[in-house]
Amino acid sequence: MSGRSLPVVALIGRQNVGKSTLANRLVGRRQQVAHEAAGVTRDRVELEASWRNRSFLVVDTGGYRSRARGIEALVTQQADRAAESADVILLVVDARTGPLEEDEEIARRLRRAPAPVLVVANMVDTERDEPDAASFNRLGLGEPLPVSALHGRGSGELLDRIVQLLPEPGAAPAVVGEPRFALVGRPNVGKSSLFNRLVGEERSVVFEEAGTTRDAVDALVEWPTGPVRFVDTAGFRRPSRAWGVDYYSFLRTARAIERADVAVLVLDAADGFTGEDRRIAARVMEIGRALYVVANKWDLVAEPEETDRDLRERARLFGDPKVAHVSALTGAGVRRIPADLLDLYERWSMRASTAEVNRFLAEVQGAHPMGARYRYGTQVRSGPPMFVLFGGGPPGASEERFLERRFRERFSLRGVPIRLRFRGEGARPKR
To answer: What per-residue confidence (pLDDT) applies to 170?
Structure first.
């Protein structure tokens, strides 16, 4: 994801496929140099565009060349960097020539790109030329969009698709700095004791009276994999039950969840998964953070097997998170938590390639036909993962739960909230 204030749409392709002409068309004014000679654009050029009240940067790049040398190799490197930092990538190809070796080489590179990729078949100047675009299905990046950058044909549909794939307004970058883990839970379940075990030093007051911790206490910890940040929070209480200083503790806890990547829900194993624990878990998933459940005071549980079965069953409703059995007092089970948290963080911030999503979509629809048929899917953001499926409207509630469950299984997203968005065919924009 781009670190800029505006999302970035990068135009990638070999030389002389009309990238600069397309950039001018998307921006709505002739600002780039467009010429029939190959290789006119050398550097990345950024232009601001706007469509349907969304603003974004269009980044035009020089053309890829196989086995490039000298300045052409530098141009190719610039295009690579643009693709790496983009929020949406347009692979621009020439419909008149069909897929060439360089197009296929670029497609292989872009299958590993973190951002969604749209294949834009340029030079489709008339309706008779549209079948030429279909040959680019073989690139494995989804159905090509036929356009004529010179005449504006198909540009409205392309802009609609770009806006659909842009990150949501105000969405924070999925991965910023060190991983952040917030310890949340009801008062007096042992969060502070667990926090001190994980941090490795006494940073929070541990006392037998419920609600001792009033403020969030951050600790930046150096692990072998790099620095991580832990946030210990006051006991989570519903606003209707929180008065005075407890109310502000609740607000701080809610904010801690929002600024975390992974929320560690600490509960008292002897109490089970209480109604308050469920409300906290629901809040974590609603905000879009990964969830990890720690059943503390496990050494006090009388019937471990039955308790474990009940905890997992109740937690399954919240993304089927992992449930760890620990005793913060003795340290039992705590040693496994760091590796679990880092793994969960990686899965929360994962990026599946468009090719992977489309293979999965074809497989799941082939094995389980649904009411709506989706032709194309892509992941548009991470942290949490959001997937957009094109070709059909929203399915029924049971089918959407089925799809979410299959996404979770396929991409190893236990404990990770999944966002699914559905885009129908829609009417073709007027030209």
So the answer is: 52
Q: Which of 332, 348, 364 is the last residue of a domain?
A: 348
373 closest CA partner among 422, 308, 300? 422
Q: What is the pTM of this model?
A: 0.65
Average model confidence (pLDDT) across the chain: 81
Residue 170 falls within a domain, yes or no?
Answer: no
**331 with 191, same domain?**
yes
**Which of 309, 325, 348 delimits the end of a domain?**
348
Reported as a pLDDT band with limits 50, 70 and 90, residue 251 is low
> What is the domain extent for residue 378?
354-423
Rounded to whole angstroms, the Cα distance separating 237 from 365 reads: 43
113 in Cβ contact with 78 (< 8 Å): no
Question: In the predicted model, what is the mean pLDDT of residues 32-46?
Answer: 43
Residue range 88-119, pLDDT digits in tens: 999 999 999 999 988 998 888 888 777 899 99
pLDDT at res. 4: 44
Place of tokens 């236990």: 414
Q: Given CA atoms 66, 72, 73, 76 in this order, what sign does their dihedral have?
A: negative
363-408 pLDDT, tens per residue?
A: 999 888 887 789 889 998 888 999 999 988 888 889 999 999 999 9
